[in-house]
Specification:
The chain has 96 residues and is mainly β. The chain is 0% helix and 52% strand. It contains no helices and six strands. Strands 1-2-5-4-3-6 form a six-stranded antiparallel sheet, with no helix packed on it. A hairpin with a 7-residue loop joins strand 1 and strand 2. Bound molecules: zinc ion. The site of zinc ion has 4 residues, from loops.
Length: 96
């Protein structure tokens, strides 16, 4: 039985934002998207963190037909991204 393609995280941003780079797979996960890069989709979370209202966005990117980057955007950067929060609301978007 052939092994399923598995993605590994190969690098984490050192600025404290918790974004991570996803290792390229030997074969593109979506051959139709070779030669392209862009956004797969994202989630905007409205949260309560450290007693304050805040927004955390998680954006999944692809490059050359495979997942490439999980980007975390924290509204209170350069404060470190909190490790816990209470979710108030979320908005999910998927690129078509
Ligand atoms: Zn960063």
């Amino acid at each position: 039985m052939a092994a399923e393609p598995v993605s590994f995280l190969v690098a984490a941003c050192t600025c404290g934002c918790r974004s991570v780079v996803i290792e390229a797979t030997p074969q593109p996960q979506n051959p139709k998207l070779v030669g392209h890069q862009g956004l797969v989709g994202g989630i905007d979370l409205s949260v309560k963190a450290r007693g304050k209202d805040a927004v955390i966005s998680v954006l999944l990117h692809f490059a050359e037909g495979s997942l490439s980057l999980l980007k975390i955007v924290w509204c209170n950067f350069p404060d470190p991204v909190p490790s816990t929060w209470v979710e108030i609301n979320r908005r999910v978007s998927v690129e078509s």
